[in-house]
Amino acid sequence: MTAKELKPKVKEEAPAKAERVRPGRVFLPNVDIFETPEALVLMADLPGVPQDKVTLDLKENQLTISGEISPPLGEGESLISQEYYTGDFYREFQIGELIDKDKIEATIKDGVLRLYLPKAAKAKPRKIEVKVG
Amino acid sequence: MPIIFREPELEPFRELEQLQRRMNRLFQNVFGQDWAPWTAGVYPLINLSEDKDHLYLRAELPGVKPEDLDITIKDQSLVLRGERKIPEEEKNANYHRRERESGFFRRVVRLPSPVDPNNVEATCKDGILTIRLGKPEEVKPRQIQVKSA
């Protein structure tokens, strides 16, 4: 596979759900979601969000991902030019009722969240052997 | 077994926001992918800031490793080159969504003032690259004492 040249993408703002306490914009993180026989895996780009500021919530079948960014500028800094906006991240997904909630694993590295959602036993495809009677 | 991903529907009074997003998408279709008039249209998007002693160049590069970045400075031009790699997942992975992109990038940035090439520091933290460039003495702001005659 030959690598292509990356094109800049303007961050999409998340639809506002309610008044927020924290000022500033909220964006939808870009995600990859894939499924394996054992699990669902979600990868989300959360640039600027430190490890302790990611909040994950799975209630009923609604998965919520939110992340708060660290201050984008250092003390005493002022902007000269701005091409991208900074802000927190928020996104919701509806997931089929098939996840083994006790075995969910989440890791974040270099601003990329990896969420491993193992399927509950009954959701895994099972091969049924047909025996000769 | 099908697993359906669906984002919750927006409330009716959020329609405006939806319309705005549709308009943005329309512009993107007309003016080329990801049209944003205030940017250079080159990846990555860059924010520049400064304080008394330094210039700061920042870019959101989630998942980009420091060893895949190459930064060079000559006079007032900074060249940022690199590659964003997204590791291949296991073969039987079946994708529902694929919004994250991988690929090469190269961007030349004209710095707003000269910098001291020996006083440059680049760090990657939580997917944000920060390049701190020291200002040479002659461009640093200087306080001027007002003397009474």
Give a topology summary.
The complex is a heterodimer of chains A (133) and B (149).
Chain A: E1 25-27, E2 31-35, E3 39-45, E4 54-59, E5 62-67, E6 78-82, E7 87-94, E8 105-109, E9 112-118
Parallel strand pairs in A: 1-7
Antiparallel strand pairs in A: 2-3, 3-9, 4-5, 5-7, 8-9
Chain B: H1 15-31, E1 46-50, E2 54-60, E3 69-74, E4 77-84, E5 94-98, E6 103-110, E7 120-125, E8 128-134
Antiparallel strand pairs in B: 1-2, 2-8, 3-4, 4-6, 7-8
Structure description:
The complex is a heterodimer of chains A (133) and B (149). Chain A is mainly β. Helix content of chain A is 0%, strand content 39%. Chain A has no helices and nine strands. In chain A, the strands form two sheets. In chain A, strands 1-7-5-4 form a four-stranded mixed beta sheet, with no helix packed on it. In chain A, strands 2-3-9-8 form a four-stranded antiparallel beta sheet, with no helix packed on it. Chain A is elongated and about 80 Å long. Chain A starts with 24 loop residues before the first strand and ends in a 15-residue tail after the last strand. By secondary structure, chain B is mainly beta. At the A-B interface, β2, β3, β6 and β7 of A face α1, β1, β2, β5 and β6 of B. β2 of chain A pairs antiparallel with β5 of chain B, so a sheet runs across the interface.
How would you summarize what this structure contains?
The complex is a heterodimer of chains A (133) and B (149). Chain A has 133 residues and is an all-beta fold.
